[in-house]
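Fold it.
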Amino acid sequence: MTKFAARRRGFTLIELLIVIVVIAILALIVIPRVMSAGRKARESTLRANLHQLRNALEQFQADTGLYPSELIDLTAAKSDPPTTGVNEDDDTETIPTGSYQGPYLSVSGGIGTTGIPVNPFKHPSDADYADETAHWSYGVEGPGIVHPAVPTEGNTLDGLPYSSL
């Protein structure tokens, strides 16, 4: 064996630095994508829950001719329907007998097991977690209109303002 071959057993400092730089570059590419995955999942769940709520509101309105006074009316049993609703002018009216065909949302799960979908941006440790108004803004902009109560500012990952969802 020659002297040169006997001395070459490990990596040189330059080889190690190159490997560290390559790993750092890969980490800079991967970490932001992984970090936004949780937010992307919450936004997707938020959109799905809004879609579910809005479909239930439309079905309630199609059956009764009115919008529910509160979101909890969407989960009322057919044997114990809500008695009043809100018309398009935001006036309270009596729901016609026999027109309620609900419940329009499942009565299990959701906020405090009410069946109303949870806003994924609310954390279970929040003091107002069991309050549906902390999750959804309903009827503020008019009858039958629901928006997420949080987040109220900022944009989604695809650039839409949360207020426009």
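DSSP finds two helices and five strands in the chain.
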